[in-house]
Amino acid sequence: MHQVALLFSTRGSQELALKIAEHYGEELGKLKIINFSDGEFQPAFEQSVRGSRVFLIGSTFQPTDNLMELLLMIDAAKRASADKITAVIPYYGYARQDRKDAPRVPIGAKLVAEMLAAAGATRVMTMDLHADQIQGFFDIPVDHLYASTIFVDYIKGLNLDNLTIASPDMGGAKRANNYSKYLNADIVICHKERKKANQVENMMLIGDVEGKNVILLDDMIDTAGTLAKAAELIMEKGAASVRAIATHPVLSGEAYERLENSPLVEIAVTDSIPLKNNSYSKIKVLSCAPLFADVMHMVHDRKSISSKFII
């Protein structure tokens, strides 16, 4: 007998989950959240999940309630005798804490991986982790998808002459190099120095952008300080235009204003995190729902997902 697949969503990712469910060809399952007066909450499935493959969709962006809600849903599914529990996490929070880069600090990405497995997840599906090696923090299968599947067609559709791919920091050099090879484009790298988190002290450009149409690539935009500074530097060096592509629109603090006031022509992001403000004209959202729906089908049908890796 073919195993049933059921899809559920956390409250924070409801909009994306509805799109995924539509592309998947199923309705979202019935789930209610019981709220207590002190802020505690309890998810409860309103239908049987016994013996089913359950996909629990939820990005773990702030506040931490989004992560806690997902963990509680995983535990509930396990205790309700779900057969397979896949945590679909388009944006994996705490991924920047992937190593001990200072004394007496946690490795948050590893802790979250252990919490997901301890709660009962049997598989994790995510997209554009801050560092690829985070997959090694898990002892359960991880489907690590790449937004390049979405962005490459978008870049080709721009039909830009003298295309150059740029990384706003050294950490993104590998990603930029992969794009540049696939698109047969030049590459430049911005080297930044920080004195503390979310604050860029100094930046220099490695490579030539004179007369080029530049696309800055990053896995996420948080305060947008780095991206805005990199865009300004690229235009100062004689670029014809500069755009940005980033998978996860964290967009905290004054990020929206910084992007709107920057020389960036356009900023393309996915809907892994819902935008807090839709009134800014420069931000273009490309949905990752079809990608996740396709891979969920492949996983459920025990098919290879390698066709989804183009870069």
From TrEMBL:
EC number: 2.7.6.1
Keywords for this protein: ATP-binding, Kinase, Magnesium, Metal-binding, Nucleotide biosynthesis, Nucleotide-binding, Transferase
TM annotation in the entry: none
GO biological process: 5-phosphoribose 1-diphosphate biosynthetic process; purine nucleotide biosynthetic process; ribonucleoside monophosphate biosynthetic process
UniProt xrefs under PROSITE patterns: PRPP_SYNTHASE
GO molecular function, one term: kinase activity
Origin superkingdom: Bacteria
GO cellular component terms attached to this protein's record: cytoplasm; ribose phosphate diphosphokinase complex
Signal peptide: none
Domain Ribose-phosphate pyrophosphokinase N-terminal, residue spans: 7-120
Catalyzed reactions: D-ribose 5-phosphate + ATP = 5-phospho-alpha-D-ribose 1-diphosphate + AMP + H(+)
Descriptive protein name: ribose-phosphate diphosphokinase
Species for this entry: Moheibacter sediminis
